[in-house]
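The data are set out underneath:

___
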Amino acid sequence: MPPLGPLAAFVPRKALAEFFAMWRQKSVFLRQALIVLDVLVSAGAFVATLLVRQRIGEVGPDGRTSWVAELLSSIPSLDVSPLGDSDPYYLLLLGLLPLWALALYWTNANDFRRSYRVMAVRYARAVVVGLALLVVAQFLFRLDFISRSLVAMFATAQLGALMLGRVAVMETVKLVRRRSEDGHRVVIVGANERGVAFASTLQEQSPFNIQILGYVSMPGEQGHSKARPNLGYVGSLASLLDRQPVDEVVFAVAGRHPEIMRDAMASCEVRGVDVLVHLPPTVPSKGTMQIANVSGFDFPLLNLRRTPTSEARLAAKRILDFTGALIGIILTGPVMLITAAAIRITDPGPVLFRQVRAGRNGRKFTMLKFRSMVMDAEKRKAELMHLNEMDGPVFKIKRDPRITAVGRFIRKTSIDELPQLLNILWGDMSLVGPRPPLPSEVDQYEPWQRRRLSVKPGLTGMWQVSGRNQIDFDEWMKMDLDYIDNWSLWLDIKIILKTVPAVVLRSGAS
């Protein structure tokens, strides 16, 4: 939690505490409203689908069903028989509302700045995630009454309804924006390329009526050709704010002239005008930034984080981990029992291999695997070091003589990793994340590589679905860091889905 350094010299405390309280307040409200609207649209699509499905399943006086029912019944495993009582479906609808909200939030479907094509893809993801959550709920709560034909019809109806709803909302917003005489009035301090680029971004991406009143020059600026109109020198900013309504002042300058900047920001503060400040180049541009206040220390601090920060999303990830691990143990239980028996029969010694690994931020935990090597494997490692086929601190060889006959098979099929589902249940690991390294490997990491320890290690990850042993160590580390920087629940789901064919095809496993 580093202090602001040079920025603190000219940023008033109150203005800094309101650092992010700008026109995005409206954007945040719109994002929240879009999720609520999408959930209501989904509910409407569900009710409409339920009514249509009931009508399709009705049997006429002559004992025949509709031609639509006959057509759908030709599809294998699609039941179009009468639904019966609809009350359970309306109760199901109440349970689906929060699941849809989570799915829409996870897939970032409330980002109104994206094109309709991108939104169609995100809505499709949200529908898939919502269906996956429904399947999990059906499995856990034994919801046997759910009709597969209804689910299939609803998925199509929901996607279409969501897209139609989004187009209607955004086109209405655009119409209101064009007809609005007033809007969010912005003055940009800095008649430079950065200020012009920022103004262009505001006007192109925001669905609201952003009015760029003009630019105010800093000392020594030549003035960009597109920075028009020029409203004068920064020293006259106070009188400018008194002459006309201004909602926000954007300081598109990189921390120069702290005394002038401090006075200009003070002018905004006393008049209640929102401020947006360009951070100095010494502050890293990646990661999440938040204003933090420490009790007993009367000065705001800038909190920089390169790891996922959303508590709601992290809690959802934990739910996904726990549920996925529990289902995985149930489904693979017979395989694990057969594997344990095969290991015990063919080679004396314990069934499980326990090894201390480094978890989140270097916390040590005991990772479980099915034993695939002879009992004295660790002692024989030193004499095989010259055969290592991986660069960096990792040790791997394709034809390792220490591997048993059963061990070679369970390694190729990744069955040896299944006991780590228990590590996931206990909270030491996640379904998706960087693989947990040995503490001895961590001791050999370069500083930039240690950031892969900032999240929980995973059973699978980018490395496993991208070639595994065919990728060099540095590229492996970069993949893990890219995963951390771009993490989302949808990314986790995609990696899990890619893991299945990677395991079946045994790509990169040894």
Remarks:
- The chain has a mean pLDDT of 80.
- The radius of gyration is 29 Å.
- The chain has three domains: 25-178, 182-287, 311-504.
- Residues 311-504 form one domain.
